[in-house]
């Protein structure tokens, strides 16, 4: 997971807040 997050950061230039928000959304979706 960490490697994918780092790749996403470098590829899209997103900030950590956006990444964490996406992770939270993915987690909520996976738990449903």
From TrEMBL:
InterPro entries: HTH_HxlR (IPR002577), WH-like_DNA-bd_sf (IPR036388). Residues 1-32 form the HTH hxlR-type domain. It comes from the Bacteria. PROSITE patterns: HTH_HXLR (PS51118). Pfam families: HxlR. This is HTH hxlR-type domain-containing protein.
